[in-house]
Design brief:
about 75% helix, about 475 residues, mainly alpha, globular, Proton glutamate symport protein, disordered N terminus, disordered C terminus
């Protein structure tokens, strides 16, 4: 008789636990609201002494890691470029391509969320009650958000006078700017002098990611508690718009995939989109099933090099960097989520603030930790910038798994399109380079020839990313 444990005894996946927590919290909250009413003393006691504290513990754990997470991720991402003088034009061209495509993606999301406005489908009375319920957390932030303007002062204020003060005030733009400058400076000093600091940043990144993992272990309870607090007060009024929110995100991801990428492939690369997607489908399926850009990296490298004929020295530079910094799907998701929750909480955003949200969605996507839930702390931080209570994040966590799988596909496809564009623009690839149909991607060793910023130039940071950032 076998004594091995059957597969059915395996622990439930975290995303399933979060969904269960959300459902349990929602059902209990709805049941109490329908049977006892939101003003019943028992409901108030449960919210005040049980659900409220549990939800706040989860939120505070996320807030706690926002600043070190942003700083370490951004600085390491920039430093992974290596010697900027040597990488020069190639590195700059790659980063510009990443930024532009992510900005286009975020713009598509912004357009859709403004067109369909899922958050406004919540009744005005419910929005008023939401703001009243979370008044102590949101009042000062709402005032600050309404008083802020988007102009030359905004760009000047991005440069912090005191990075420590920016950290204390949760000034993400200031920390992001400092992180970028810090990373650039690391690439400009002697590698021997820079290596210890890079090691410190890598260790900090690992530690922060581990804290996020700990926080996400509490997510089922925290999300259940937060959703219980919401549904016990507001019932179905906050749950119905979620379906429209999911449709907005998935539609935006689909449009970016079938419009933006094909236009780039056809007019800037000279490759048929049908050929492209048919040759890289193995990597896209892997991305969807793993929800991980970095876990997909070996497959992505193989298909782009062997099925599309892109030189390994281009692939070895662009794809590892893209797995860390090029997040087309994530930038769209973050922008849509912030504006959806602002609509849900009745926070009015002018055109300048919406443009700033779009920019923040792009920049924070660069610093999103590659672990399940790694973008959630950054989302909470951005919400706080615009006067939206952090508790609102509980509304979307239960549906995030399918969105995570979908946006990872877009992230990976964006990396592959970038590799093609860079190779074409440098005269290292043409459509004639694509091998005949039927060639299968393998796991051949990359060409690590010297003289070009190939995999060996970014290997130390990439190896660390693959260990510590396993998901998109």
């Amino acid at each position: 008789m076998s004594t091995q444990t059957e597969p059915t005894g395996k622990s439930m996946p975290l995303h399933t636990k979060i969904l269960v927590g959300l459902v349990v919290g929602a059902v209990l909250g709805l049941a109490l609201k329908l049977t006892l009413g939101a003003e019943h003393e028992a409901v108030k006691v449960l919210n005040r002494y049980v659900a409220g504290p549990l939800g706040q513990i989860f939120l505070r754990l996320l807030f706690m890691v926002v600043i070190p997470l942003v700083f370490a991720s951004i600085a390491l991402g920039v430093a992974s470029l290596g010697d900027l003088k040597r990488v020069g034009r190639i590195g700059l061209k790659t980063l510009v391509f990443f930024f532009v495509t992510m900005l286009i993606s975020a713009s598509i999301g912004l357009g859709l969320v403004q067109l369909l406005r899922p958050g406004t489908r919540i009744s005005p009375e419910t929005r008023t009650e939401l703001m009243a319920t979370y008044a102590s957390d949101a009042a000062s932030k709402v005032v600050a958000s309404q008083q802020s303007t988007f102009g030359i002062e905004t760009f000047v204020s991005i440069i912090p006078r005191n990075p420590v003060a920016s950290a204390a005030n949760l000034d993400l733009l200031g920390i992001i700017f400092f992180g970028i400058i810090f990373g650039v400076a690391l690439t400009m000093i002697h590698p021997e002098r820079a290596r210890p600091m890079i090691g410190v940043l890598e260790a900090l990144n690992d530690i922060v990611i581990k804290i996020v993992e700990i926080a996400m272990k509490l997510a089922p309870i925290g999300v259940g508690a937060l959703v219980f607090g919401v549904t016990s007060r507001f019932g179905w009024a906050l749950l119905k718009p979620l379906a429209v929110y999911v449709v907005v995100v998935l539609t935006g991801l689909l449009l970016h995939t079938i419009i933006t990428f094909p236009l780039i492939l056809r007019f800037m690369v000279g490759l048929s989109p049908v050929t492209f997607f048919s040759r890289v489908k193995a990597a896209l399926v892997t991305a969807f099933s793993t929800s991980s850009s970095n876990a997909t990296l070996p497959t992505s490298i193989a298909v782009v090099e062997q099925n599309l004929g892109v030189p390994s020295k281009v692939v070895g530079f662009v794809l590892p960097l893209g797995a860390t910094m090029n997040m087309n799907g994530t930038s769209l998701f973050e922008g849509v989520t912030v504006i959806f929750l602002a609509q849900a909480f009745g926070v009015t955003l002018d055109v300048g603030q919406q443009a700033l949200i779009m920019l923040m969605a792009v920049i924070t996507a660069l610093g999103a930790a590659g672990v399940p839930g790694g973008s959630i702390p950054l989302l909470v931080g951005v919400l706080a910038m615009f006067g939206v209570p952090g508790e609102g994040i509980a509304l979307i966590l239960g549906v995030d798994r399918i969105l995570d799988m979908s946006r990872t596909v877009v992230n990976v496809a964006g990396d592959q399109v970038a590799a093609l564009y860079i190779a074409k623009s440098e005269g290292l690839w043409t459509a004639a380079s694509v091998p005949p149909a039927g060639v299968q991607a393998g796991a051949g060793k990359l060409d690590e020839s010297p003289g070009w910023p190939g995999p060996t130039d970014v290997q130390p940071t990439v190896e660390k990313d693959e260990r510590s950032r396993p998901a998109s």
